[in-house]
Amino acid sequence: MKQGTKAERAGTLRVKRGLAEMLKGGVIMDVVNADQATIAEESGAVAVMALERVPADIRAHGGVARMADPTKVEEIMEAVSIPVMAKARIGHFVEAQVLQSLGVDYIDESEVLTPADSHHHIDKWAFTTPFVCGARNLGEALRRIAEGAAMIRTKGEPGTGNVVEAVTHMRRMNREIAQAAAAGDDQMMTLARDMGAPVELLREVAGAGGLPVVNFAAGGIATPSDAAMMMQLGCDGIFVGSGIFKSGDPEVRARAIVEATTFYRDPQIVAKVSRNLGEAMVGIEIDDIPAGQRMQERGW
Amino acid sequence: MVGVLALQGDFREHARMVAASGGTPREVRTPADLEDIDALIIPGGESTTIGRLASLYGMVEPLRSRISDGLPTLGTCAGMIFLASEVTEGDQPLLGALDMVVERNAFGRQNESFECDLAVEGWEDAFPAVFIRAPVVDRTAPDINVLAAHDGRPVLVRKDHVMACAFHPELTGDDRVHRMLIDLVA
Questions:
Q1: B73-76 and B39-42: which strand pairing?
Q2: Which residues, listed in sequence order, are joined to residue A152 by a DSSP beta bridge?
Q3: Is the N or the C terminus of chain B less surrounded, counting Cβ atoms within 10 Å?
Q4: pTM (2 decimals)?
Q5: Which residues of B are annotated as catalytic?
């Protein structure tokens, strides 16, 4: 046996982005307690997102939504062996410091919570714990990556059970990546200005034909077909927020969404797992959400 | 043709690595996909998720029998766990292709994940090893060859045509681990 390993380097870009790579093709589920976390893990979730209330309840109850109680986050970390993510408010770097000190595996700087800073996001380079952030388009995704995000997700419209906004955001992202890839060097600065994207990252996207980090779908996914559709549109994996634990039979639905995410190109399997799921969460029409209450519009 | 188990995880990175090393990758999701492959990679991902899906879709027995019939196989991270005969904690489907006990998340959580230059038996240059919530081999049968260890704990092992590592060669540009597998394909 050969020995003599050199120093360990923690919190590098590769280590942060690498965990997201391992979650690909999987489903990350919102949970509010240890019991839900256990159900999620047993149903095949690749990670859980710890939060105080799922987006549908945040929407229903109103008020200021904040980071979850550390006791609750720790209970969830104790209950499962899969990675645990937790949400901090946009710009609330102290909530993020607290979550890092608890040892969560990923921090979601999330528009689902009430923003704490109306101009700035968290400087994510200052942390060892990796961050995931929401985006509606390429410019927003690249601004977050420039701030240190190691994973991106579509914003969609959380807590609605309505997939339309997630679809819009994923298609826009795909369209803008294709646009960047087709643009010449002489167009890059203007494109970067128009998209609000850092030009160096835009060049990287143009060269690679894709984002430099993993991109999941989130915000309104409620059924196995929703998950498979997002996968066919090219996302790397699925976040389900309210869709599971606000449905009639969370365990059955969780399993079905996991299987549909793996076999997303096989409609027979998606059909099979879609049978007898019980009631889906009640959906909300996007146009019925009053102006100023769309979570996707939070973030700068 | 090198099959990459594509139930969940970073199977696309492995496929890219196989293609870059001159092999032909193929995604494997069902028993039928196993039929005409000459080697197999079990990727990184969540071992509980991969194990559950493999068991649900009837993959465990076909995988066991192909591997015990001599199919060259490489498992990385979650793949190492899946190839083991036992885990120190919890209960999840395992292939038992390597007679060893594996400890999951052995270095801790994500904040303890790291990169390092790893010395490997028989290789002149260190390997750029990326450990992400990585497992280690807790103990092995005596006939399993330990090719590399970190802090005295085995992280790259091999027995005949089956090899496993706790780190992620697919996240680097270094194809030496993949070459060990591809070189076994006649």
A1: parallel
A2: A133, A215
A3: C
A4: 0.96
A5: 77, 168, 170
